Amino acid sequence: MRGGTVAVVGGSIAGCAFASAAVRAGAGEVVVLERTGGRLADRGVGLCVHDDRAAELVAAGALPPGIPAHRLERRRWVVRDASAGAGGRLIWEQPFPFHSYHWGLLWRGLREAVPGAVDYRQGVAVAGVEGAGDGVDVRFADGDTARFDLVVGADGYRSVVREAVSPGAAPDYAGYVCWRGNFDAGLLDGLEGAPSHPGSVTTVCFPGGSCVIYRIPGPAGPRVNWVLYAAPPAGGGLRFDDPTSFPPGALGEELSGHLRALLEREFPEYWGRALALTAPADTFVQPIYDLVTEPAATGRLLLAGDAASVVRPHNTSGAAKALQDATAFGAAWGRAGSWEELVAGYWAARGGAGRDLVALARRLGRAQVERTPQWAEMSAADVARWWEEQLAGAPGIGGQAMSS
């Protein structure tokens, strides 16, 4: 099947990957509709991709080579223990075969790889979409409409396209939040109390939460990225009826004070002081949601990435899943004789992956935030058994291998 018009709603990681896949598959016209008018590359959060998933995606052409990445090898789980020193006490260490990325640099690499034939439009807000028999009508916020043969919803966890695919589906609040931040890794040089492990991920464990800390590349050099999961304060101005986040620099004193108290009360001294190096402009808080959209594809509409399934970040699988979705889309296109066959083939390939990832992330969230064990009383063997119980037969985190 060749030719036709494809609209990709959303121009971030999933959107760029799907636009590239559509061109490679033979689409006649591909338009990306990105509501943000500014530079998406300014988003500085970190993410990780499992080495095996990266190898598969590079081979498939979905992950362009040359994007800056930082190699990670070990994950160290620590608890606060004054007798063990400022860095805390190591309770378990496990292999961690991942590479970390800066979101903006990863997006930039994917954006640069989008073929020039793609019409990538920024500052274009989509108000809704509607299947119309032989096409899909896209309604813009300014009142205009346009028709396409196929529409891909790659517009994230607050997807507009989702309502047309699965009416009423919306992410559910998980009951806790994550504070996120990053800072110049060079600041650690002046911080005494614990050795630096550039190739390690450190997970700080405490009652009612945990925090993951690792290095990522940055536009001006290496940075330290961290994600801290815990229940929010009773106040703080957070809303949980609609997925949202407090952008960097907009926490307010109540949320900022709650974070400071967590670091002082629960963290080993070194790691509390390390995270306190984060500037307010690089700190934000995000309520955690999840969602399995059933179905995530119908007619001539399909959902991709976070629009299709909202997975709690514990899985470390978001970017890999988005790129795998795009790879499966291209493969389904090659086998399809019609738009409807393409959409059905994509859903058959990716529906199960979304369900499995959400289920695993829920187990990990319960175990690492909602119902934390007595970390400080556990031996390394205890933690290893506990971890396998949460995996419940899954091979690990970082996403699944692509099916052939």
Automatic annotation (TrEMBL):
Keywords (A to Z) from UniProt: FAD, Flavoprotein, Monooxygenase, Oxidoreductase
Cofactor(s) required, per the database record: FAD
Name of the protein: FAD binding domain-containing protein
Species: Streptomyces polychromogenes
PANTHER family named among the record's database cross-references: GERANYLGERANYL DIPHOSPHATE REDUCTASE, MONOOXYGENASE
Pfam families referenced in this protein's UniProt entry, alphabetically: FAD_binding_3
UniProt key word Flavoprotein: yes
Ribosomal protein is among the record's keywords: no
Domain FAD-binding: 287-330
